[in-house]
Design brief:
Layout lengths: L2 H17 L12 H8 L3 H13 L3 E4 L3 E4 L5 H25 L4 H19 L11 E4 L3 H14 L5 E4 L2 H9 L5 E4 L2 E2 L4 E2 L1 H7 L5 E15 L20 E4 L4 H13 L12 E2 L2 H9 L5 E5 H6 L3 E15 L6 H10 L2 H10 L2 E2 L6 E3 L3
Parallel strand pairs: 3-4, 3-5, 9-10, 9-11
Antiparallel strand pairs: 1-2, 5-12, 6-7, 8-11, 8-12, 8-13, 8-14
């Protein structure tokens, strides 16, 4: 590890021990020699870590007496130092990324993708009435950007996003847990998206569809496509380690339908049961070498510098009950998606066709 970063890690580990009361006022820290062995680093790195703790008024150092803890953090101090530590970590990451040739725009986009991942993990099912539009549905990279931008322009709180898959979104809408659902469910019999599923799950309801975009779906592969994969039929070849989306997601439904048409048994695909909750999760697994093929969006492949084989253009709709259009927040949201500036911003991300973005239609029963 780069020792410029390591000293911060050493300091943070000790600070946490003080916060957790594993180290108390008067306790001595290990000697620099001992810490050098423990962390496999130079004495200068440990000294720099101890100096950082002195700067934070957590320890004191005196010649011949070593380094001692001088106090315990109270809640206010802990909050402040937590923010400082987080800022240090962020600054270190940014510095490393910029020196490796990434642009600020690329870094910002990567942060947004990572936040999508953690939002999906920490999502809650409660609906906050009157403050923000509660969304349940399929993972989409553009949605978080749109939510944040909508907040900046309109001055209202953004969407409360819960990524639970396309079917999960429609079910949440039916159960009253969501005000807005996002789905891209392909029906092989009608060769259409979303409407057949809406009719089954939301019968006799006046339902509105607001098209977000058409998205490029395909196979995500390691850079250079070393195994020369050409399509779904190659997923059964020896040496292929696949990573899948979760059951109930629109991507999984499309994949399973196409595998049936090709006569491919899921059990013949190594890794078929390795499921990930988001497209960025799939791309990350491949980027880290744990798999060499996955199903996902082109924008996920682009964000991780991976190869992509286009398979289909899928329609992603935002679904809600038509009566919600009586609420100003929904009207503003529709108008926001219909703006040319919004469409251009999403097109610039890559992997999206925004020709029909903002198109409003209604399901007929």
């Amino acid at each position: 590890m780069n020792e410029t970063r390591l000293y911060l890690q050493i300091a943070e580990s000790i600070r946490r021990e003080i916060v957790d009361q594993k180290l108390n006022p008067g306790d001595k820290l290990p000697s620099i020699r001992e810490m050098t062995r423990r962390w496999n680093c130079t004495p200068g790195t440990v000294q720099r870590a101890y100096q950082e703790l002195v700067r934070q008024n957590l320890v004191t150092s005196h010649v011949g007496q070593g380094t001692q803890v001088i106090g315990r953090l109270n809640n206010l101090q802990d909050i402040s130092l937590r923010k400082v530590t987080l800022a240090h970590k962020a600054d270190t990451f940014l510095f490393e990324s910029v020196t490796n040739g990434f642009t600020i725009e690329e870094i910002e986009q990567s942060f947004q993708f990572a936040l999508d991942h953690w939002k999906s993990i920490q999502s809650q099912s409660s609906v906050t009435q009157g403050t923000r539009i509660t969304f349940f549905g399929s993972h989409d990279f553009a949605l978080s950007w749109l939510s944040n931008r909508f907040s900046e322009i309109v001055g209202k709180l953004p969407l409360k996003i819960n990524f639970v898959g396309s079917l999960g979104g429609l079910i949440a809408l039916a159960e009253g847990k969501a005000q807005l659902a996002g789905c891209h469910l392909w029906d092989s019999e009608s060769n259409s998206y979303n409407i057949p599923f809406i009719r089954k799950l939301l019968p006799e309801k006046r339902v509105a569809l607001l098209t977000l975009a058409h998205r490029k779906l395909g196979l995500i592969l390691p850079s250079g496509n070393p195994l020369h994969i050409q399509g779904l039929s190659d997923l059964t070849l020896p040496g292929i380690q696949f990573v899948n989306r979760q059951d109930g997601s629109g991507t999984r439904i499309w994949l399973d339908s196409n595998l049936r048409q090709l006569g491919i048994e899921p059990k013949s695909i190594q890794g078929y049961k390795l499921e990930k909750l988001t497209h960025s999760d799939v791309a990350q697994v491949i980027a880290e070498g744990e798999a060499n093929a996955g199903i996902g969006l082109e924008i996920a492949a682009l964000s991780y510098g991976l190869d992509f084989i286009f398979l289909t253009l899928e329609k992603y709709d935002l679904v809600f009950f038509a009566e919600m259009l009586e609420q100003p927040a929904f009207t503003e949201w529709v108008q926001f998606l219909q703006q040319e500036e919004t469409r251009n911003a999403i097109s610039a991300l890559g992997g999206y066709d925004t020709t029909e973005m903002g198109k409003l239609s209604f399901v007929e029963f």
